[in-house]
């Protein structure tokens, strides 16, 4: 049984270990895998599109704890979702909504359970991890859960024409799915027009290009260099297509 | 069986993997969890207060390898501690001493074993991990161990009125336990006076406040912004309370 | 069964989790350990010397996925190697070649299998992880594999007189094995001459020295301070010995 973590909690901070401690106590046999803890902080929209790009790879019946939660402790609701056979647990603030909108089948379940002790700021540890652990351990199943018709916050299925993630090489992921973009198209960001290449080694060292990355997204990259450094890319930066 | 790691070895460097390799060879069935590897480097005192705040969550009989060890290879002694049913293994330099001072019951055991090969600088891998692995694997038990009356270095049970950790959001953890601080109190840092809020979403975006964080500590934070950036917070910075 | 990961994929990015997901699906009982994901980006030579220094510690029959792969998607070949009883899987671009050159016994096997879906840029996930998982799961054994006489790219067994890694403390690892260097020798970097000490606590706080680190390499360090900061060390910087 696989439990994936997808958060903006930071891969170096002390949050992830506390979540894993709870998960392993609830589901000792589960394999817990860090998918990403560096979703741009507080950026629910970027997170929603990254999660949608990653979700295809997750095995059936896996459980993903998905938390980017600037509204923690406020009015946003906690929620479980089963989309195309995969579970997601986290805040109902839009983060799961691109997965939901693109899924063939998505069922939404409110989380009605509350833990004995709930901190004001760390529902990942106190609420979402115990729920995910119970799903993974077989203690919750879709048939017995109360449903709600839809998520409270929905971003829809459309692509997001923005930089949504910059990796440590300096590659800029976009919210555009590459299978909808012609290889002849140029990506325009900050008035720079960027052409396509299949892969890094096809362009000279240092040259900027776009390609279909391993998540199926349009990515702005440079061969053995930082595209983000060369272009001043930033998360949230808008982009457009040109012929 | 759970083994936790709490160090300043860095979450991105090549130290943690080497420790895990040793642990898994000694205790194949143990679950090894990274609690924190970004204790401020060399800062034993900050580490001691973070460890004390985290220790409450650790399950009974768990083993924590706790290493912030600027004196490695020098005269400081290696030590095992069992405090309120939880084990800790590491250098006797104060790092475990706040846990010890606040525990209902703490037993201290010198580590007399030495490995065949002991590097001068990486006792986490060569000494503490094998010992922790043997405790976790059931090969060492408190009843059969030689005791010593107390730790060599003791910081005591008192709170530490300093910034002890800054997370990647820019929140500043303090060494003050929140249950001893009135919600009407102001935290004063660098002549800035900071009022209380229950949670991030209770203040406007960008506004600085303090709250009881998920470890029970007073934390200086800002809603969807970096308090450390706004206030110039640094680890070790002193603070005080005002009415 | 142990699978180690040694890459420049970044410990905080979304690459490692995807690899682990594939590995655990192929080899559910394997223990997967992150050795290092911060090999200096694209720096195959530095990676080759770090890997050679780490390899001694790896248990027999372990499998290491070793990927620093700026030529991914180009002409470089994928390869498996069994060296002194340990497996390595990755690109044949020199990365494994220092391990090979120093091994008592190294066998090289071309990877002829190709996955149904192979991304242009992430062979770690699509090609090397499934192969490593099959080795770890017992599905591939050396006796049945086609061999090739040698690696395509070979750096040889010699030491590399350069800074090959800078850790988060600011210590500078070099590609020099310490057992070949007299304790009376000085390390010369950028015209600074640096003397030997056994360990950090033997020099005053802030003082720069070199010592044999826990991997057996000459390391330039400073007591409770950043040698890299003090000296302006950079990965790839050349160094020499003086009497």
Structure description:
The structure is a homotrimer of 243-residue chains. By secondary structure, the first copy, chain A, is an alpha+beta fold. Chain A has two domains: 2-144, S-adenosyl-l-methionine hydroxide adenosyltransferase, N-terminal (Rossmann fold); 160-242, Beta Barrel (Elongation Factor Tu (Ef-tu), domain 3). Helix content of chain A is 20%, strand content 28%. Chain A contains five helices and 13 strands. Chain A has helices at 15-26, 44-55, 97-102, 123-136, 227-231, and strands at 2-7, 31-36, 63-67, 78-83, 86-91, 106-110, 160-166, 172-177, 186-189, 192-194, 208-212, 217-222, 240-242. In chain A, strands 2-1-3-5-4-6 form a six-stranded mixed β-sheet, sandwiched between helices. In chain A, strands 7-8-12-11 form a four-stranded antiparallel β-sheet. In chain A, helix 1 (15-26) packs parallel to helix 4 (123-136). The longest helix of chain A has 14 residues, at 123-136. The radius of gyration of chain A is 19 Å and the shape is elongated. The relative contact order of chain A is 0.15. The mean pLDDT of chain A is 96.
């Amino acid at each position: 049984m696989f439990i994936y973590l997808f958060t903006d909690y930071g891969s170096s901070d002390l949050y992830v270990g506390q979540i894993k401690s709870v998960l392993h106590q609830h589901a000792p046999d589960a394999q817990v895998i860090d998918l990403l803890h560096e979703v741009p902080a507080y950026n629910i929209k970027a997170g929603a599109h990254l999660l949608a790009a990653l979700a295809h790879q997750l095995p059936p019946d896996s459980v993903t704890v998905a938390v980017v939660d600037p509204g923690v402790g406020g009015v946003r609701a906690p929620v479980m979702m089963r989309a195309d056979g995969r579970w997601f647990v986290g805040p109902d603030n839009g983060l799961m909504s691109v997965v939901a909108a693109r899924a063939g089948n998505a069922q939404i379940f409110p989380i009605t359970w509350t833990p004995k002790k709930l901190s004001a700021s760390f529902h990942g540890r106190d609420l979402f991890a115990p729920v995910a652990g119970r799903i993974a351990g077989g203690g919750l199943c879709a048939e017995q859960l109360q449903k709600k018709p839809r998520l409270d916050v929905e971003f829809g299925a459309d692509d997001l024409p923005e930089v949504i993630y910059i990796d440590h090489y300096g590659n800029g992921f976009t919210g555009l799915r590459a299978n909808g973009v012609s290889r002849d198209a140029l990506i325009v960001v900050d008035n720079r027009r960027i052409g396509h290449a299949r892969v890094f080694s096809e362009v000279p060292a240092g040259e900027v290009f776009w390609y279909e990355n391993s998540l199926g997204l349009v990515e702005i990259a440079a061969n053995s260099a930082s595209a983000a450094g060369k272009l001043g890319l930033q998360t949230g930066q808008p982009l457009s297509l040109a012929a």
